[in-house]
């Protein structure tokens, strides 16, 4: 029977339980478990049978010796084998050799602790066809009936990297710029990136960020330089490598972050106006020396077409052509006055122009009616009786009850 890692953990637990002792009533509890094979020279008895307060049970002690031996052998066998890591491409056919075993040796392969069917074996070798991501995992090979572990490896299936996407930008000009990168598709295995920044013949240091990991910062050593920057990014993994290079001027990559804290409010008593205010991006270090200009766009929600206004200075603007009572969506972008490109749009804000509250109009007749109704007492509406139990017939007529009338009517019918 093969000793699996789960069985090994069970044996470790059993070995710990073996260290229990049998307590003898009336004796002090000070004796700990000892190996029963050790001999006490003074008393002339094995230490497995103690006389100082506790006595080890001989049968469990013997079991402990066996379990300890099994655990030791298991640990020695597994400590002698290093776990290899094997990388293979998606869709490839993979062959694994069972260590030093001969081709015709009887072996058993497992994947993540589960036995692999013999149909996947070519002699003692394991053959996997057209591997995909589900084949990644721990593989082990055991020798025939002895179940000695002969080989183990961790298979990782993936792809070589495609050309990386590289971008450099200065959002805090004139302090410096940063470069960020990513792969257009995952490789499913670890990748290593190396970036090199050259300014003419001089290589610049790129300080990598802790988060995100795919970005680094470079400080400008010389402002207003006409020498181009050259950035090369190389990506490597166990299945291949790829690289990309970009070249740019200092001014071309200047792009501020979007304006912050954009607020839009209606203007009192002006049904076609909206007042918009914002702040410079906090990442822009010196707006006095390097001022920004702004681009405002707005539209009512019922339309798809934007209206635009470019502002050379200031951080506010009043929209004067809004549709009364219509909700608007508003955004702002920023750009250095002289160099670079426009930022992305700010977070959209919504606002509706001022509208006059409706007034309730009343006439003089409505006022008089309201006053009369308010001072008069309640008078129930008149009712019309369809059938009265007592009726008056002519002036001075005799009152005839409803029952007597029915009797007279019946007699009248008899005489007809």
UniProtKB/TrEMBL annotation:
Gene Ontology biological process terms from the UniProt entry? positive regulation of cell population proliferation
Keyword annotations from UniProtKB, A to Z = Cell membrane, Disulfide bond, Glycoprotein, GPI-anchor, Immunoglobulin domain, Lipoprotein, Membrane, Receptor, Repeat, Signal
Q: Which CDD domains match?
A: FN3
Supply the SUPFAM superfamilies for this chain: Fibronectin type III, Immunoglobulin
Q: Provide the Gene Ontology terms for cellular component.
A: ciliary neurotrophic factor receptor complex; CNTFR-CLCF1 complex; external side of plasma membrane
What are the recorded GO MF terms, alphabetically? ciliary neurotrophic factor receptor activity; interleukin-11 binding; interleukin-11 receptor activity
Matching Gene3D superfamilies, A to Z?
A: Immunoglobulins
Cite the Fibronectin type-III domain residue spans from the record: 258-358
Q: Where is the protein localized?
A: Cell membrane
This protein's membrane topology, according to the annotation, is:
Lipid-anchor; GPI-anchor
Q: Work out whether the entry's keyword set contains Cell membrane.
A: yes
Domain Ig-like: from-to ranges: 91-141
Q: Which family does it belong to?
A: Belongs to the type I cytokine receptor family. Type 3 subfamily.
Query: What is the designated name of this protein?
Result: Ciliary neurotrophic factor receptor subunit alpha
- The organism named in the record is Mauremys mutica (yellowpond turtle)
